[in-house]
Each structure stands twice: as C-alpha cells, then as structure tokens.
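A protein record pairs a chain with a discrete description of its three-dimensional fold. The following entry can be read in just this way:
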Amino acid sequence: MLLLEKDQLKTNKDQFEKIGIKTPAFNFEEVWEETKKEPIWLHFGGGNLFRAFHSVLQQHLIEQNETNKGIIVASTFDDALIQKIYQPYDNLSLDVVMKADGSLDMEVIASVAESIATYNGPSSWQRLKEVASHPSLQFISLSITEKGYDLKDMNGEIRASLREEIEQGQDKPSQHTMILLTSLLHERYNCGKAPLALVSTDNFSHNGDKLKEAIMTVASIWKENGVVEQGFIDYLNDESKITFPWSMIDKITPLPSVTVQEKLKDIGFGSAELIPKRKNGSLVAPFVNTEESEYLVIEDRFPNGRPALEKAGVYFTDQVVVDLVERMKVCTCLNPLHTALAIFGCLLEYTSIADEMKDADLKALVEKIGYDEGMKVVTDPGIIDPMEFIKEVIEVRFPNPNIPDTPQRIASDTSQKLGIRFGETIKLYLEREDLDVNDLSFIPLTIAAWCRYLLGINDAGKEMNISPDPLLEDLQFYLKNVEFGNVNSVGAHLRPILSNQRIFGIDLYEVGLGEKVEEFFKQLIKGPGAVRSTLHYQIHL
C-alpha cells in the first residue's frame, strides 16, 4: 500500500503514477524551505475547500515555474485538523476530482509548506506571529464559513462572551478568528507596518467588507480600552497598507466519501482513513473529494504584491465585476438553489443532493426559484454567462451522483445565508417598476420551509437533527410554543424571525411577504406529509 508520506513520495514516484495518482513536478522540500524563510501566503481555515482549491492553484503555479513558494496554513477554531490531517501526513494531501462519468482524477498536493496549530503551546503562537509579521508576506486568505466573521447576536450587539474575550487583550491566540487576526495585524504594525492584503474567500457577498468590519470592531474596542494606539487604527484604514479585497468562490467540496475511500484502497493507496475530527463525529481524511467545476474571482488590490494566480485560472478584476459575479452566483444561480434543496431535503429525509435532483418536485422547485423568479433580476458580470452558469448547476453539478454532498451539510448556518440568498432578490423586485414582489411564491415557500425545519420534525412527523447555526437557540425560543399539527398555535410566533433585518436584510412584513410566509408555514405544519403535499401543490398550481 502506498502511503501519503514525503519519503514514499520521493522513493515511489513511479508507483504512484502507475496507479493513476499524479505527483508533484517540483522539489517540494526546497519549496517548503523557501516558503518558511520568506512566506508570501498565510491561510486560515485549511478544510476541504482550501485543500481542493487554494492549495491546488498554488501547486499548479509552482509547476509552471511562476513561483517557488507554497502556502502556510494555520488553525482557527481548533487544532484538530492540523493535528490529525496535516502534520501526520507531512502536510501532503490527495486531491480527488469526481467526474460525472464516475472517473477520478487524483493528484498529490504538496504546496502546503507548514501547518501551525495555534493552541499547541507558546512556540506555535510565536511562529504564527513571525509569519504574519514577515515583510515578505503578501496576503492572508480565509475560508472559515460565514459564521466565522460574526461577532454579534440577533440584536446586533457584540456577544457578551466575545466582548469579554476582546477586552482581555491582544497579544495571545483567540478561538475567534477575527480576534486572532486583529492581534496578528497589530504584531505586523509593531514590526514595521508592512503592507498586506486580507482576502476572504468565503461564500457570501461583499466578504471583504465584512472582514474589515469585524477587524475594525475588535481594534476599536482595544483603542477604547487603551491597549492599542490610534496609529494602529490608521494603519488598518490606510489602503496603501492594508486592503480587504472582495472575492467570489465556487467549488463544491463535500465531506470525505466512503465510495472514494474504497476506490483508493482498491488501487493500493493506503492513506484513506476516515478520521473523526471532533466529538460531534464530523469526519476528515488525508484525501479530499471534490467536483470538477470551479470559479474564483478576486478584486485585484494587493499592496504587497501577489502570485500570478491568473495563470492557474483565477479571475482578477475590479470590485464592480466581483460584485456582479458574486450576486449572480450567491443571489440567483447557485446558492439559493442549494439552500432550498438543503431545507426541503432535510424535511423529506434525503441524504444526497444528487438524489434530490431525481425528485420531480424538488428539481422543479430549484428551476422555479432560479429560472422563473431569480433570473428576472440576475446580474450579468460579463466574464461569466449567467444562463450557462445556472444551466451547468442544475443539469450537471447538482445531479452528479459522484458528489456525495448532503442537504444536512448545506443546511448549516442557514440564518447567516438567507439575507443574501433570498433577501437581495426580494429587494430587487421592490426596486423594479416592471416586477411585483407579490408574484414571488417559491422564495417565500422556502423561507416558510426553513421555519418549519427549525421545529426539528421531518415531514413524517419524526424528530430530526438540525444542523449547527449560531442563532439556533434564539430562533427555536421564538418557535417553542408552535405545535406540529396545530395551525392555530402559530399566532404571532414567526413575527420576531420574519421581521429580523439581520437575517433577511429586510422586514418581510414591511414588504408584504411576512403574511404570505406565515400562510405557507401553516400549510407545512398541518401534519405528516404536509411538506410534500404543499410543495407538490405549489409546483403544479
């Protein structure tokens, strides 16, 4: 059995190639050394998306002799990923691209030069500070999901526990990435004020602005408490020094697949373990499986330079175009459809997005949300055709049976997604004189289904697990007196949710959709089978 180890990679290169696994076409140990001496790229959130996309881009750039530097990756919330997936395998990873025809493209990725477990003692924290303050560092990127940027509760106030952590000071690692990043920026400020770009590659609109807002929130509290000087605030606001480019990223990277694991073992690849990362049972593996399609568009503002990632397929453009691409994808052509499948899929007991696309009602649902409701207000970025993009999503990407993606995974953190994925379309309907917001049916139906999902009861009337969400406790508190099967119990219990502008970006009652969502919700809770019957009726109305 071939193992994912640097020594085996050097001595058994031919055997890897023989079983169909591409190996690095460069001296990876030399690249690692050069990267450690003069880092250019630090990344937080080294999960599946990073391993299947960012690290692959840089590997291909190294192979083109466009750079001799790799990436340094660091932990954010915890160190389990670093300790279980990076360090035991010499920071190597196996990228497995799952094609719709069932074939696999496999490649050993060796572009990660170093992995830092932030909480693994003072030496790790010191090393992270050294990397972050090194003048050669060009940018820090993030893929930590939307909730990683949020410091506030439903009322827009900083969470009490986080305020306490912020006020404790700035020169130590924090479990909240925004606090940790601000601390590292302060270290860079103290070590010479070198320029830097901070690039969020998380999947929401205007991600650079949200990143800056979070950093400035932490820094401002420190300034108020006298632990940093005004010069640090000025440094963060000086665009010749610090920038927060916007980006749009798109690549489906599900959890490791048992099917892929079995195929790897069958061909003689031994590093295919499925490893529990945390107590909740989430699994990680030395390999990462992903789809073939991928898009990354970044605003080109890098005050300390950047790698030539455009030669690996990244689009670099201005902020206006990034915004248009992001709105096309997040507000219309992919993310709203994914969220709808996640919500209804959980309620209808599906465990596969591809299987959902075989369901006539669910396929029709995403077609109506996308083609009928969303495409009327879609933005055209010019560099990617919206109709071709959404067609690829509905006809190729979602139905791919070899992508083991689940509605349960996608349903995570839905409260953080609804404003962008549905609220923006509602706003555009309100702005357009030729459109009537009251003509929207399937977006309000999906919002109602999300509220129905929060009850924790599936369409068969049985209890079901609800995916993690930072607002889950608050949301379920408002719904605690709603009884499944009792339409009269709904009352005004949905109002605090549907009127919350932090969730939807608008008050749904003020725009005339709150009552419509309530009526859909009442239909959905009538009893077992009500979700299916309501969905089917609306599809064929």
Observations:
- The domain at 6-317 is CATH 3.40.50.720 (Rossmann fold).
- The chain has 24 helices and 15 strands.
- The two ends are 57 Å apart (CA to CA).
- The mean pLDDT is 94.
